[in-house]
Amino acid sequence: MPKTKKTAAKSATKPKKTTAKSQEATPKKPAHPIQSVRGMRDTLPVDQPHWLRVKTAVEETAGVYGFDRIDTPLVEETALFIRGVGKATDIVEKELYSFETKGGEQVSLRPEGTASVVRAYVQHGMLNLPQPVKLWYMGPMFRYDRPQSGRYRQFMQAGFEALGDDDPIVDAQLIIAGWNLLRKLGIESIVKVNSLGTTDSRLNYKNALVAYFRSKKAKLSDEDKKRLLKNPLRLLDSKDEAIQELKAEAPQIVDWLDEDSKSRFMRVLEYLDEVGVPYQLDPYLVRGLDYYERTVFEFYAAEDDQELAQAALGGGGRYDQLIEQLGGREDSPAAGMSLGLDRIVSRLKDMDKDQDPHQALLDLSQCDVFLAQLGDMGRKKALALFEEFYTAGIPLAEAFSKANIKSQMEIANRRGAKWAVVIGQKEVLDGTAIIRDMDAGTQEIVDVKKVVNEIKKKLASLQK
Ligand code: AMP
Questions:
Q1: What is the pTM of this model?
Q2: Ligand 1 pocket, residue 90 CB under 6 Å
């Protein structure tokens, strides 16, 4: 930044001499074309059919389970995430995209959705609505993580949050909704579940954990030693091989759970049994966000041999303190889950890898009516007629930049058009339009003023 300022200042005081020649010169071609920012990807048209499938499944599932949509801003005060997600979490400590605005506010791109949804719930007085308030969202999240397969700096999450209710059936239904959503997409998944107890019972467990890992300190990496000090539960999440081995002997949280948490956890599991959701108890599942307590869970794709895929497709849990921590009423329990849509899409792509992705895109762009034109007059009239169809809410395919009728008809066929409306010079002069039945090859001439209605009738006959 200072460098730019300096250059700007320099050029302001010392204007460059411009010659007639340099004024005329066209801008130089850059040595390297600009690429998308590391860890952030384009979603190209060929991938859109998969994304559409996933987004539709999210929307439909949210509707069935009674969640209302909420959209929150991509940018929030940094304090929201420090207070909400937790200061000593990787997400806040290392991965926040934070910046100061021109007005001096400290803001960040959201790394996840729950903190924002809770902020909105408090800010808009949703505590006064009948509880639970059930909200869902879908949108991009940002984490400055090391990009790798399945891990991006901008990624899409869809989340369901049930606020203001502490019944374990809420936890179970969130798990069931996520599991069903994946199943709807053809992904068989298994849920890893654990209970983190309450803040108090967890404190005792934390102490036991710290004592255990302290006794093994020599085997810990520098990073893990830091975790031991700041956020010992996160040690259980470490991918470090030494920790993986040490974990086997580490104290397990179930042995430290308070009675109430234990019985709530049992009820969650009973509900899952009732519906037949496959789950695995994972005593070391802790999740990377500080706000969780009691139930936590993660979804993993079940491979053929029941081995679980490496990366979680989603996860969630109960966060009974977060609403209060963000300024809401005391005793406002809540639970939620979120799914990583990039990973789900990538699984669907793997599952469909024998299909031609371009065909899927073509299938998506199928259109019953094509508007063809011939000659300048025909093209002009067709352009105006397109607007009439648009106003009437009738989707129409066209190829206005093509003059040749044969190539237009080829496109009409590719788009699956059943009828082509054709306008040439003669039709413009006569005030008519030709409607061609693409399958039968028959044609009829209609008054151009009635063509929208005629097409409407034909489309209606398709519905019957
Ligand atoms: P979390 O908000 O960390 O609980 O993550 C919920 C889900 O979002 C994970 O299970 C992943 O599927 C997905 N996810 C989290 N971080 C990333 C990332 N950096 N890139 C892609 N997906 C992610």
A1: 0.87
A2: no
